[in-house]
Every structure is written in C-alpha cells, then in structure tokens.
Amino acid sequence: MNWSGPTAWWIVTALLVAAELTTGTFFLLMLALGVAAGALAAHAGLGLSAQMISAALVGGGAVTGWYIWRRRQPVEPPSQENRNMILDIGAQIQVDKWEADGTARVQYRGASWAVRWQGQGAPEPGVHVVRKVEGSCLLLDR
C-alpha cells in the first residue's frame, strides 16, 4: 500500500482526535489542528519541512492560545462552595434557635438539616444564607 503524504497526516490527525475523545485532554485536539495544517500543506504541494513547520506553528500556537485563554478565566471555587455545582449555596434559611456551640437543626426543603455558623461574632436567630456545604451540614452566615 502506497500512502501519499497527506494521507499519513490525516491518519495522525484522526489518531490524535481519537486519543482526545478517550482521555478528554483538550490539548490533544489543539495538536490535531496542527497536524491537520500539515496535511493541508501537503495537499498544497509544499515540502516535508514546510509541512512540519506548518504543523508545529499551528499546533503550538493553538496550544499556547488555549493555555493563555484558560489562565485568564476566573478560578472556580472549590466544589463545596461552588454555586454552579451546589444549588443550595446562596439560599436563605430561617434559624429559630442556635446551640451554644454554633450549630442548629433547621427544616429546609422538607427535611431536617444540621447547620453550623461560620460568620463573625455569635449567631443570632433569624434569616441566614448558605455559604458552603460540608456533607449534610450547611454552613451559614448573614
């Protein structure tokens, strides 16, 4: 079987895409873009050196661009403090009575929950906001 230059580039591209799909490493997809640029350079009739330079520039540029873009994104809070993962964060809860150790039991969403005070000063009865969830305990402050 006699493969042309572009065929080899496209096979490597497909292998990188398959590897990305199995591992979830987005950087492999950026490298696949570079290898596809090498394939397009081969289709254009450029020499092997130009094909490799095209692949390296596009793939390296895509990886660098993705890295820079990811670094500029805001850092997600830990999962127990992330409102996108735990929808209870930010909810308001009525606490009628606090124990001396800063804990209480409240009715929330039809069930009894343990809550713990994490704010400044001593907790007082009233409406509080869920700031964090640790297991089945809600951490509250004003």
> Are there runs of 5+ residues with pLDDT below 50, and where?
none
Overall 3D shape: rod-shaped
Instruction: Report helical residue fraction.
Output: 40-55%
Q: Give the biggest beta sheet.
A: 5 strands, mixed
How many domains? The number is 2
Structural class: alpha+beta
Give a count of the beta strands, DSSP E runs of length 2 or more: 5
Strand content: 15-25%
Which strand order spans the largest sheet, edge to edge or round the barrel?
1-4-5-3-2
Rg over CA atoms, rounded to whole Å, is 27 Å
Mean pLDDT: 90
Q: What is the chain-wise order of helices and strands?
A: HHHEEEEE
The N- and C-terminal alpha carbons lie at a distance of 73 Å
Helix count?
3
Overview of this structure, please?
Helix 1 packs antiparallel against helix 2 and helix 2 packs antiparallel against helix 3. This protein has 2 domains: 68 residues, no CATH class; 62 residues, Nucleic acid-binding proteins (OB fold (Dihydrolipoamide Acetyltransferase, E2P)). The mean pLDDT is 90. It is 44% helix and 22% strand. It has 142 residues and is α+β, with helices and mostly antiparallel strands. Strands 1-4-5-3-2 form a 5-stranded mixed β-sheet, with no helix packed on it.
